[in-house]
Amino acid sequence: MIKGLEKQVFDKLKAIVSVVAPILAAMFAAGKSDEVVAILRSYPSLREFPDNQDLSMLVVVLLGLEFFCLSLVRLTGPWDPGRTRGLYSLAILAMFPIGLWISQSWKDPESEALSRRLLSYRWVSYDPLEFDPDFQPNPAILSIRRDLHWIHQAGFSGIVTFASTGTLQEIPAIAHKEGLAVIMGVWDPKNRLEILSAARQKDSVLGYSVGHDRLGDSYTLTELVTAVQFLRNSSGRPVTTTERVRDYDEPGDQRLSKASDWIFPDVHLSLQESKGPISVERIQKDVEEMMKGIEKVKILSKRLNRPLMLKIVTFPRSGLPGASPDLQREFFQVAIERFHDPYSGLRAGSSFVVSSAFDNQWKRTPPFKPWDRYTGLLSDHGIPFPAGKLVTERWP
Question: How far apart are CA 371 and CA 264, in angstroms?
Answer without folding.
Answer: 23
